[in-house]
């Protein structure tokens, strides 16, 4: 059973990794920030599976913090947004 | 299967690190770095260091990211597009980093094979502290002096940041406000903090018997506070306010006071009488959690940017 759970965790990590590198190369800055969300979700899923595989309940706490801080980091991204006009200029720049 | 998982994780970490080093735009690098912090937290769990994993997810994946994003947003207007590091400089940095990494790898490989360890001694003495988590016992009982000094260093760092404020702004409020608050951010800042505070209290409480503790709990609280300030729901407090300063020094002061009380009660600085060791430790942890939350939050908020009222 533990092997199956570990295998599932490996699969999730691999899929998340592929998705991550795709999102990190995205055209818009905001889309790239979604990479952190993706990692939060995928990482938490893998942690929960690994925790079940090894019987460590505390892994659930790590998964909890991972989710919380992934969401928080996305909010922090607003710091970089100066104003709508600047954001628009940046988008054109990004697209070029 | 676990070996395959560990190898995949190492490969992923290396690839992400390379991506961070190679990417042109600063903000992209910071976003990838936040991801790297979260992934590194996952890596620490594979080494069975859950306390480190929690701290890495909180600090590396959370607060450091905000600090860097804030610094980048602050620097961006003055940055000319051509003012990047030259090719030679990058090569030099790469060589230096590779040398440090190789040196560290050599040092790790040169460890004596049955590593000298105090773990059995720490485990035997655990019942006398009343705690169940050996990491918390090391932090707050066996090596309490290190922890005390570490908290004082945090306060010193905050004083360093505050002293960057010009004279006429001293004592005023820092400002964390982005120019635009997107609707989802305001919604998130209203929804997430109740859960965050609950998780922070849980982290602090569970730390006595399982991975977790003051630093993790304090960081979660700080993050929730920052979220509220980011969404402009509450302004940052003026740094001259007495209540702010009391919260900042409350934890270390209580720690120090109980440390001196150890002379009278248990015959040494920072020694706890065995019968009430656990209540004392949990009390110190509670005060420290609040102090750490306030310190980290204000560290990210930065120096005062508005003049103090009246």
UniProtKB/TrEMBL annotation, chain A:
It is a multi-pass membrane protein. The keyword Transmembrane applies. InterPro entries: MrpF/PhaF-like (IPR007208). The chain crosses the membrane at residues 6-24, 36-56, 62-82. It comes from the Bacteria. Keywords: Cell membrane, Membrane, Transmembrane, Transmembrane helix. This is Sodium:proton antiporter. It comes from Bosea caraganae. The lineage of its organism: Bacteria, Pseudomonadati, Pseudomonadota, Alphaproteobacteria, Hyphomicrobiales.
Automatic annotation (TrEMBL), chain B:
Signal peptide: none annotated. Residues 186-302 form the Na+/H+ antiporter MnhB subunit-related protein domain. It is a multi-pass membrane protein. Residues 12-75 form the MrpA C-terminal/MbhD domain. Keywords: Cell membrane, Membrane, Transmembrane, Transmembrane helix. GO terms for cellular component: plasma membrane. The chain crosses the membrane at residues 27-45, 52-71, 91-111, 118-142, 148-165, 185-208, 246-270, 276-301. It comes from the Bacteria. It is found in: Cell membrane. Belongs to the CPA3 antiporters (TC 2.A.63) subunit B family. This is DUF4040 domain-containing protein.
């Amino acid at each position: 059973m533990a092997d199956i759970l570990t295998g599932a965790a490996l699969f999730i990590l691999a899929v998340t990794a592929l998705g991550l590198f795709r999102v990190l190369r995205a055209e818009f800055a905001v889309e790239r920030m979604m990479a952190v969300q993706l990692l939060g979700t995928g990482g938490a899923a893998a942690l929960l599976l690994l925790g079940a595989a090894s019987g460590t309940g505390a892994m659930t706490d790590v998964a909890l913090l991972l989710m919380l801080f992934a969401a928080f980091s996305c909010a922090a991204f607003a710091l970089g947004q100066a104003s709508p006009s600047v954001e628009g200029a940046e988008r054109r720049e990004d697209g070029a | 299967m676990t070996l395959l998982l560990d190898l995949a994780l190492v490969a992923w970490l290396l690839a992400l690190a390379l991506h961070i080093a190679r990417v042109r735009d600063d903000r992209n690098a910071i976003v990838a770095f936040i991801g790297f912090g979260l992934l590194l937290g996952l890596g620490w769990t594979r080494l069975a260091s859950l306390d480190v994993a929690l701290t890495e997810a909180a600090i590396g994946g959370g607060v450091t990211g905000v600090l860097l994003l804030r610094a980048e947003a602050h620097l961006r207007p003055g940055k000319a597009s051509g003012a990047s590091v030259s090719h030679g400089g990058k090569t030099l940095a790469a060589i230096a980093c590779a040398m440090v990494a190789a040196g560290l790898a050599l040092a790790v490989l040169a460890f004596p094979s049955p590593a000298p360890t105090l773990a059995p001694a720490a485990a035997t003495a655990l019942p006398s502290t009343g705690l169940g988590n050996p990491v918390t016992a090391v932090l707050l009982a066996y090596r309490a002096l290190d922890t005390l000094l570490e908290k004082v260093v945090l306060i010193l760092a905050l004083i360093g940041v505050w002293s960057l404020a010009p004279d006429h702004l001293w004592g005023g409020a820092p400002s964390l406000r982005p120019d635009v608050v997107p609707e989802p951010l305001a919604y998130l800042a209203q929804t997430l903090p109740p859960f965050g505070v609950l998780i922070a209290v849980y982290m602090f409480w569970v730390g006595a018997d399982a991975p977790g503790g003051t630093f993790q709990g304090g960081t979660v609280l700080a993050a929730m506070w920052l979220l509220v300030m980011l969404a402009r729901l509450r302004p940052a407090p003026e740094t001259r306010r007495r209540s702010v300063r009391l919260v900042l020094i409350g934890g270390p002061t209580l720690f120090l006071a109980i440390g001196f009380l150890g002379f009278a009660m248990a015959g040494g600085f920072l020694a706890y009488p065995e019968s009430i060791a656990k209540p004392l430790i949990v009390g110190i942890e509670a005060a420290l959690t609040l102090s750490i939350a306030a310190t980290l939050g204000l560290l990210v908020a930065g120096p005062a940017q508005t003049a103090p009222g009246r």
